[in-house]
Amino acid sequence: MNAKRTKRQPAGRARTSLTDWKRLGRQTDRQIARAIADDPGTFEESAAWIRDMGKLAVPNPKERLTVRFDADMVAWFRRQGRGYQTRMNEVLRSYYEHARKSKRRA
């Protein structure tokens, strides 16, 4: 943990909430529903939205498999940072595309 960003509360001292819990406790379900509807950040999915979510197609779906690569190759890709497996896939795809085009010409 980063000590600069971590703060400890002294023992016996509760955090003070900025929420007016008494006011919220007095609100009716209708008032709460209206506040949610009026909030521009609120998103409630509709049946059509849920149905259409299934239509999102992945152009090249990934397949999970176990492979073995040379340790130095994996270390090199990992040093590149997050997304190293995606980059490995991109290198393989580039080779595949090149080989496929070369085969067509022959």
In short:
The chain is mostly helical and 106 residues long.
Overall strand count: 0
- Rounded to an integer, what's the Rg over CA atoms? 27 Å
Helix content: 40-55%
Largest sheet: none
Overall SS class: mainly alpha
Count, helices: 5
Mean pLDDT across all residues, rounded? 82
Tell the overall outline. Answer: elongated
Give the SSE string.
HHHHH
Strand content: under 5%
Which regions are unreliable across 5 or more consecutive residues at pLDDT < 50?
none
N-C termini distance: 59 Å
Produce the secondary structure layout.
Elements: H1 21-26, H2 29-38, H3 47-53, H4 71-79, H5 84-105
Provide a descriptive summary of the structure in words.
The structure is a single chain. By secondary structure, the chain is an all-alpha fold. Among the domains are: about 20-55, no CATH class; about 70-105, no CATH class. About 50% of the residues lie in helices and about 0% in strands. The chain has helices spanning about 20-25, 30-40, 45-55, 70-80, 85-105. The model has no long low-confidence stretch (mean pLDDT about 80).
